[in-house]
Amino acid sequence: MSVEKTTMRALELRQCGAEFDLAMAEHAMPVPGDNELLVAIDYVALNHLDARMAKDGFCQWQYPHILGLDAVGTVVSAAKGVFPPKGSRVLFNASLAEQGMLKEYAVVPSHAVSEVPDGMSGEVAVSLPNAGMAALLALDKMQVQDGDSLAINSAQGAVAHFAVQYAKQRGAQVFAFAQKEHHKRLSKLGADWVFDCESESVCEQIKREMGPGGFDCILNTQGGDSFLDDLRHLRFCGRIACLNGFGTIPEELLFEKAPNIGVVSVAGAWMANSLCAQQHLCFMGRQLLDDVSNGRIKAPEVKLLDFSVDTVRDALSCLLGKTCQQRPVIRITRD
Fold first, then answer.
1. Enclosing domain of residue 53
2. Which residue range or ranges hold the Enoyl reductase (ER) domain (predicted)?
3. Domain count, the chain
4. Most CB atoms closer than 10 Å: which of 242, 262, 274, 320?
5. Residues 57 and 157 in one domain
6. Could you tell me how far CA 87 lies from the centroid of its own chain?
7. In this structure, are 158 and 238 located in the same domain?
8. Quick check: helix, strand or coil at residue 277?
9. Is there a single domain that holds both residue 86 and residue 176?
10. Cis bond leading into 84, ω under 30°?
11. What is the spatial distance between Cα 15 and Cα 37, in angstroms, rounded to a whole number?
12. Confidence (pLDDT) at 211
């Protein structure tokens, strides 16, 4: 940096709630430690998880809290021998339990970042981490392979955007359940069958296509009661991955299905303090960047927004109320 800065702007959530009580504040410039990078944040992508947590809060947050998990920035300071070096553009997924990335600068561990390839824009790169990593983890948990039938509920979301494409690469038959306005996009991504999740005859449609056996694998994105509904459509000893938890499973249903259940948590890499899992986030980040850069995976459409209280509040409200066709990406500007 040509001028030594002592403060930076950060967008704070002063308390949780659906009104999104946000304010711009001045913070001291962070100082990197050993094996850490000081990064000038360029873009922050907002997820449905950001909106839900901003509304409901999180048990490990203290307020005011800074939102934002997915970020792309430029390394402005790195100790000698620490990689990637100063000037590199990096992508990373932040810890849910710590302060987020809606700020001008951040200190991040060097082992958890992925370098953005030349020729890829920062706004495209930042749309990949949280949703793309969750999709990759879910498919690995379910061991999706050639010939498997995979159902994805609430497939209009960002995780399904990646899960459909990667499942097809593995040779699976993909059944997507979403509102009608998302059917064309899901078909273009590779879904073999797309069902109207709001149709009263959806169960009959499933039986007509699948028969009485059920799906080999199901990706449950909503949690709660929807998990039990999905479990009823799973074949005996099938595999199901859940992104948002589930309640008590009736004993009869548990014995009837004998399911292999996997819980997906990108945030767990940080909350469990697992260096191996954090490095795996880096590897998945590289895979996503490489696949998009080489045209193997289509990135979501993005909508660039200003770094202000009003635009972030509006984006969070949109994410909380519906599935946004374009991913909200905040462009961080600095004085």
1. 7-127+299-331
2. 17-330
3. 2
4. 242
5. no
6. 26
7. yes
8. helix
9. no
10. yes
11. 29
12. 66
Residue 171, both tokens: 């040779």
pTM for the complete prediction?
Answer: 0.95
The pLDDT of residue 2 is 47
Tell me: the pLDDT tens digits for 108-158?
999 999 999 999 999 999 999 999 999 999 999 999 999 999 999 989 999
Collect the ranges in the chain with pLDDT lower than 70. Answer: 1-3, 200, 202-203, 207, 209-211
**Residue 288 CB coordination number (10 Å):** 25
Residue with tokens 């300071």: 77
Q: Which residues contact 63 (CB under 8 A, 6 or more apart)?
A: 13, 14, 15, 16
Closest CA to 266 of 153, 151, 135, 157: 135
pLDDT in tens, 184-193: 999 999 999 9
* N- to C-terminal Cα separation, the chain: 12
- For residues 136 and 253, membership in a common domain is answered with yes
The CATH code of the domain that includes 12 is 3.90.180.10
User: In this structure, are residues 243 and 159 in contact, taking their beta carbons and an 8 Å threshold?
Assistant: yes
